[in-house]
Design goal:
Oligomer: single chain
Helix content: over 70%
Number of strands: 0
Radius of gyration: 20 Å
Strand content: under 5%
Shape: globular
Number of helices: 13
Structural class: mainly alpha
């Protein structure tokens, strides 16, 4: 019995590490795609098309008996979910990545739980009791996360690695680069806000339509339609739609297969085994992996302002997660969300907004 538990824990940790490597790889792959000239509209179209093709048969076969009847109201909600979670989310992400860097794109994403808390509090979906430690932790964590994101946006700071390629670039048009950097961070904040808004809005939709794979497939479908509408206005040159090299093909396939299909499977499995809070706690590892990969593969520079901001965001993330976990333990009996490992496969999984965290 003891050896089985150890094996399950090891499998969970390996899966979580693989998940973070997949996420980190997506940041690098997306930046490489932008560097070689892949269109910022064509890239998400191909990505969501591949994801839709891969998801649809699994959603159809595995959720035959779980899908409620479709209504016009549900279809409108799916469309709005796609607008937030696919179109705005991925659009802002690619714009931010183009002007900033993969490292700080990943660092900014750690602020999503805090932004989700702010939106839920504004909509009165979340309550906070400042007299309790968990309520205070959520508020302080939110302030730290927002403060960290603000520092990254407004203060770049001196470089830390002194990479030759970036020193040369840094001396030329530094004012223009600083302006682009700030726009990049603003776009990344838009990405985080749309992601957080998608999670808040998705929570009531999942209750009405609990077939999660089908819901994801519908979201991908409407997101694809929305990007195609945008492309009809901004990407009229057919040459930009052609895949002209094996490198471009690999980058697009990675974004669709690994960053969508494999990541959804791994994340769902990890959440079922360890709970969304435990999975979210590994998010900062992604930022470290991205920083290392970006420095080695892309020659990206690290700046002191970004490191200070990232540390604040990570501290804020853990405070918010601790506050939510502590509050849940007080108000509810222990559930699958707070257990470090599920041993009973038949136990019902209760999924909240953190469980629905999708890829950017």
């Amino acid at each position: 019995m003891g050896s089985n538990i150890v094996r399950e824990k090891v499998k969970l940790l390996v899966a979580l590490l693989a998940l973070q490597f997949c996420f980190a790889g997506f940041h690098i792959v997306s930046r490489l795609a932008l560097n070689i000239g892949v269109s910022k509209v064509v890239y998400p179209v191909y990505r969501n098309l591949i994801a839709l093709i891969l998801l649809t048969p699994f959603a159809y076969l595995l959720e035959k008996n779980q899908r409620p009847s479709l209504t016009l109201s549900l279809l409108v909600q799916f469309f709005l979910l796609a607008l937030l979670g696919i179109t705005a989310n991925q659009g802002f992400y690619l714009l931010g990545l183009y002007y900033a860097s993969p490292t700080f794109a990943s660092a900014m994403q750690n602020s999503v739980p805090a932004i989700t808390f702010i939106l839920a509090l504004t909509l009165r979906l979340e309550k906070v009791n400042m007299a309790r430690r968990n309520g205070l932790a959520k508020v302080i964590g939110t302030i730290a996360s927002v403060g960290g994101a603000t520092i990254i946006t407004l203060y770049k700071g001196p470089p830390l690695l002194h990479l030759q390629s970036h020193q040369t670039l840094g001396d030329h048009n530094s004012e223009e680069m600083q302006q682009n950097w700030r726009w990049g961070c603003i776009y990344l904040l838009g990405h985080c806000f749309s992601w957080a808004g998608w999670m808040v809005f998705q929570a009531p939709v999942v209750k009405k339509y609990p077939a999660k794979l089908s819901l994801t497939a519908f979201t991908c479908f409407f997101g694809l339609i929305q990007f195609l509408i945008i492309a009809a206005f901004v990407e009229t040159d057919l040459r930009n739609w052609k895949i002209v090299s094996l490198q471009e093909l690999f980058l697009i396939l990675y974004s669709g297969i690994v960053s969508s299909a494999i990541v959804i499977f791994l994340q769902t499995w990890c959440i079922q085994k360890g709970g969304p809070v435990f999975v979210a706690a590994f998010q900062p590892l992604q930022t470290v992996l991205v920083a290392l990969m970006a420095a080695i593969i892309l020659g990206d520079q690290l700046y002191s302002g970004g490191v200070i901001g990232a540390i604040l965001i990570v501290l804020g993330l853990y405070l918010v997660l601790w506050g939510k976990t502590s509050e849940k333990n007080i108000t509810e009996p222990p559930s699958s969300l707070t257990k470090p490992l599920l041993l009973n496969e038949e136990e019902e999984i209760k999924v909240d907004d953190a469980a629905s965290k999708d890829i950017p």
